[in-house]
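Incident review: delayed structure delivery

Summary: a single-chain prediction request sat in the queue longer than the usual turnaround. Root cause was a stuck worker, restarted by the on-call engineer. No data loss occurred. The affected request and its eventual output are reproduced below so the record is complete for anyone auditing the incident later.

Affected input:
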Amino acid sequence: MGFKMGIVGLPNVGKSTLFNALTKTAAAQAANFPFCTIEPNVGEVNVPDARLDTLAAIAGSKAIIPTRMTFVDIAGLVKGASKGEGLGNQFLANIRETDAIAHVLRCFEDGDVTHVEGRVNPVEDAEVIETELMLADLESVEKRRQGLVRKLKGNDKDAAQQDRLLAAAQAMLEQGKPARMVDVDAEDAKAWRGLQLLTSKKILYVCNVDEASSATGNAHSEAVAAMAAEQGAGHVIISAQIEEEISQLEDDEAAMFLEEMGLAEAGLDRLIRAGYDLLHLETYFTVGPKEARAWTIREGTAAPQAAGVIHGDFEKGFIRAETIAFDEFVAHKGEQGAKEAGKMRAEGKSYIVKDGDVLHFLFSK
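Output delivered after worker restart:
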């Protein structure tokens, strides 16, 4: 599995510029006026992972297939969106379909780029959007609880669980706090995700800085970092303008440009890694002469479920997983060498897949 991250923020903070850079397309119109993005633009990008190239070189794989990540560029939000202001209703509907939110905040000064609120204050911008999402959630929760009354009277167990979770969300929202601060038990996790509350989504703050601040950040990004730390959220510093320029260059030219700017890697790499950390994702590999391929799973995934990412039949008929750790695969120059060195393990249904595992699944048809 990959994951879907919604790029959100107030108008004119650099969302579409960042989207263009990430997807290396001009599909999202980047213009200096509110609501230049009306329909959500969706782009898939390869997740860069140097380990995949290493494995492919050792195995002589003909094809290299990275795992994928989906970005959704969602229309700019304004104050009052929860009541339908601007493109609020559309924005809120689109964000429900994402796994996490990359909240782009303007952390640069530029008199030529209009700010919808007439000032540059990324922390206040974040509060505007958070407030609108909480208001929308609160209205949704109240309506949904009302709709459960009849089922509750009939002692419907699913309805009782849903109402209990909605009540917990309502209590948190009424305190002016997002739903993600609710402590959810493991047995309720699936039902909780099914509620699709806007403020239950994990947040990654993206500090869009000017070119001069791309390597070190600035006072605005420092304020965002402090806010993120207080909330237990992630943050990353990116200059969307630089990233868009880099996206138009060949690999060698891009590497030179990054070095000149004092940047160790492109913003895309930092953003994806931060997104992986945010959602507790890991990567495992399948390797052979035909292809070397990366697969994304959540931390704590057992071998049968990891196999199911490839195909449902692999999970249903799972027998065992022949497993080699990445470092062992490299050290012993491939599957045969690792096997001869006793570094290939046969793991059963209870095995929890580790990041970097090279796996071969055996299953019954």
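Verification: The radius of gyration is 23 Å.
Action items: add queue-age alerting; document worker restart procedure.
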